[in-house]
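Limitations
The structure tokens in this dataset are predictions for the assembled complex, not deposited experimental models. Users should treat interface geometry with appropriate caution, especially where small molecules or nucleic acid strands are included. An illustrative entry is reproduced here so readers can see what is and is not provided.
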Amino acid sequence: MNDKAVYCTIVLVFLLAASAAGQELLPPLDVRTKDAPNDKGTSLLVIWKPSFSDTKGDKAVEGYQILRGTSPDGAFEPVGTAAKGDTLFTDHVPENGVDYYYRVRVLGPDGAFAESETGGPAQSKAQWFNTERGNALLAVIILVSAIIYFVYKAQSGRELYIRKIAGLEEVDNAVGRATEMGKKIVYIPGRQDMDNVQTIAAVLLLGRVARLAAEYETRLEVPNTRSMVMVSCREVVKEAFLKAGRPDAYREDDIHYITEDQFGFAAAVDGMMLRDRPAAVFYQGAFFAESLIFAETGNSIGAIQIAGTAQPAQLPFFVVACDYTLIGEELFAASAYLSKEPRLLGSLKGQDVGKFVTMAAISIGALLATLKSAGLFPADWVTTYTNFFLVR
Amino acid sequence: MRREIPLFITSVVGLIFIIRFFIPHEPFFSLENIAASWIQVIKAFAIWLGILNLLKVSLDKIYKKEKGWGYSGIIVFSFLAISIAGFFFPVWEGRPTGDSYIEHARKFQYPGTSFDWFYTYVYAPLSSTMFATLAFFIASASFRAFRARSFQATLLLLAGFVVMLGSVPVGNVIFGWLPQGWQVSEIADWVRNVPQVAGQRAIQIGIALGIISTSLRLILGIERSHLGGEA
Amino acid sequence: MNFWEKFALLDRRIIFAFIFLALAVPLFYTIRQPIPVSPEGQAYYEAIENLPAGSKVLLSFDFDPPSSPELQPMAEATFKQLFTKNCKLVVIGLWPQGPQQAEKALASALKDPRFADKKLEYGVDYANLGFMAGEDVVIQKMNSDLPGTFPSDYKGNATVSLPIMQGVKNYKNFDFVINFSSGFPGTREWVQFCVDRSGSKMIAGNTAVQAPENYPYFRSGQLLGLLAGMKGAAEYETVSNQPGKGISFMGAQSVSHLIVMLFVILGNIAFFVSRRKK
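Predicted assembly:
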């Protein structure tokens, strides 16, 4: 007799016994255990076939209890529970490289239970590569390769076309206008800390604006909500004034901290704008609900306003109330665009490769989904395609 | 070395954390927690840097009687009032007896404390008032900006009308005669869930690529002006 | 200049005055209007309704007082629905004022006479672990060590001493996650670092401005429900049959929307008249 036939016979005997007994629970079957994949170790997967009492539905099954031991004949202790209908449990074991054995009990009312045969052994171990993130690795390799390729190609001297960004073309004019009117420039580098890439982009652009302000001898004020951003802004502005040959014009107290509180900051900056009436205001970085408060106040005093943010929810407010707005990635391109440094421009080109790949993937997916809806393409192929892009 | 050391740290740490995303094995797995703890500590200490700067700038303005020094006086007074009241005059209901003073000070946010009084009756109304000004600013910005100057502007205007009407129950009351499936709230839901989501996704994809490119420039040391000086 | 040309240059303070009246006057009257429930709002309600009784739920309060008119009604109604299902609730805050907002919502929900017989006990049925600095870093850390990330609760008790926190190590020990947020850190960070990394099930309540950013997550199934602004609060109160401030404030919102639209229409008339004259 082969294994399958043996199992069926055992099951049949159990069924007959159970029907003879009337109310007995039947144990879960075929308990197997294996190492949980893609983790740092100390996890084992316990898999079983559900008890017939559970699948038949005519016995009061309350759930399952999983027991673990270090030898097949030794003591087993409970390590967790699973719900009725479950067939998988993840156990966090104390040590890697140790054999663990499992039994699964089906639980019934009044403490009744039926215990399975022992399954195992299995050892947990850590993996060196998370195979579920292979797709992310491929995307990173493609994008990074494209960026590095274009960075080094740009170094060879070939000119790269970058489209005009109106907001960045007007930076010079904004600083010039403030100089002519004899009023100051206000630069707000967003409300997030230095760990946010938008803030870094804002600080990079501040360097360019500070250089212009130094050359034109225009006062530049930078109110901050984060102290580390304040420190970075001071470094950048000080260096810009030094490079422009105007270290004496640098005023450290013009780059100052106000508060981390959202509306406290909004009130302070609004009050300063209404009293001092700056001629040019820059809003660059991450903003939230205070964006329209700033922009409308700046509009009411007649300042030229250039905004730039990667917060999609705030873009409409800036577009409506400011003279120029850098939308999303334009903020990240600002430093490269203004410096015209070949390596930085090359990175923008590499970014475009990533965009092209993304557009192609979305277009193919949309086409496949449309064909699937029309019954012209197998549904599981479309699922396979879309699942390829899931990152776990 | 003033710029080279930060660049080196940025590059090494940046690369390690990119690699860490793909390697679950120790020590890479614990790096995230370790870095997270370090960042929490740094951010907590950084708050003091800002507070001291705020006090210094405000006191300077008061001392030199610069333009707007009165507002700096209000800042210093408010800061001291809340700090002193919160830490040294905690008054709350049901204070347990026998606790040490330090234990009381740790619980300064409890309902019924002086700090909670300032929060409920001073800070919360002031914050809410500033947020409320948005309602007025949105109205004035809409009046100024929503003009049908071109085809795209007209389309934006109509979409705005539909979403505004669909966002409040009165839209369905006024246009209740429209057939099911074409109610204003349903059209507004469609505008929010289809074209709006499509536009948001496109912008977010562009932003994500921009973040990757900027981060790579920082890790490779191509972009250095944030450390002071040109790239 | 004729009337329309002058109207095009209307002083913004006149607009402010009309908006003030549009918002303030309806608060003194009861305006009854049918509240249609959006698919996202219905999904939010059903996600909680489908929770097994006694589920353990993690709630994150990531907002401050300015956003409380929109988010506080949602939070109160959510607490009531969860208490009705005998769920165990653990509250945290990634914004400094979050835990205090949570305390207010809890206090309001516990006053409901339906829960007087349940004798809900702090530390057993619900707990407030307070605020932790670190923003999105805190969400990441909780993936591996939640008690270590919040070592003590809002009242200074050790987290591990609370009965509700027994056996809790990370998100996998919670059946559900609910986030109320109005900015950063908020729903997007929770989706990125909690839902995507640990597979948790999550719903969210956002301010009306922030919600459009998170509709893609609802469409993709990463969020199982989403409430947007005060209308979202009104929808949830309607579908869960718990009338509150969300529904009562919708009258003022309706009138103010109509006033803004009226000004936009009149502004466009003024624009076309002026353009034709030129």
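Some entries come with short summary sentences. For this one: The two ends of chain C are 12 Å apart (CA to CA).
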